[in-house]
Amino acid sequence: MVAHLPHRTLSLTEEEAAHPPAMELTGRRRMSPKDRALSETLFGEFHQDPRYREYVLGCLNCGECTTGCPAARFYDFSPREMLQIAATGDATTLWDALQEKIWSCCQCYTCNMRCRFGNDIAGIISVMRELSVRHGLEATRKTLAPFGRSLTLLMTVGTQVSADMIQPDFFRDWGPFATGSDQVWGVSSEVMRKAIPLDVLQTTRSSWEVSVQTSLELFRIYEETGVLDMLRGLDPDLTEMLVDIIEERREEFQEARETYRAALETMKGPVATFEG
Ligand code: SF4
Ligand code: SF4
Hints:
binds iron/sulfur cluster
């Protein structure tokens, strides 16, 4: 007897499991049908982002942006290429850029200053990053995995590097200019640290010391703007840890406020008597 089962459309994952797909070779890697579908979605979202029209204005291909880019000096990366991908690339080239290259940029905005077309190159790279984080791309998870400690500091105290951390031992990846002597690109690192004018920013301890209220306000921004939700999709464990930290601070803040109110009430007694 043959059972007549209702027809069911297989999901892409099941389909792939049943019939391993012929992989499609993009410029840098092989792409499965599932990734191909996702790349089309990302491409659509990227071009519909309201910032796209504002940031991408055209390109002369002059390369001025790349000549001043610190990331281009050390990595296989160029802001000119990023802008070209944004302006004329297809879903595949965007997908390739989202895998790795977008994370080479240090968001210094030098490229924007140099671009005679007025492109916001650093801005469009940020839009690409948001896209990759929002969709929890596997490559993005791997790229950001070692930065849990930095993210924790950024999201709880608002900064993670202080002036006194600018030392050769802390930045070995800067290469021989930084690690071979106490010089960073020909300038004493001590001089560089002093270039930051506020004394309070000179030490790690003072940089990481923020009031509970500041910490809570900062975290509220991450909650209200959807950053926390994006992070949850990327790293749920880290997100839960951050939420726990902030919940503790909220309780701490609430207790401090109640103590303050009680103290005010105590003070009101003699004042009221005096006024009376
Ligand atoms: S913002 Fe990024 S792409 Fe632009 S110059 Fe700085 S590192 Fe390079
Ligand atoms: S500086 Fe502007 S116009 Fe020139 S290559 Fe870069 S993005 Fe294009």
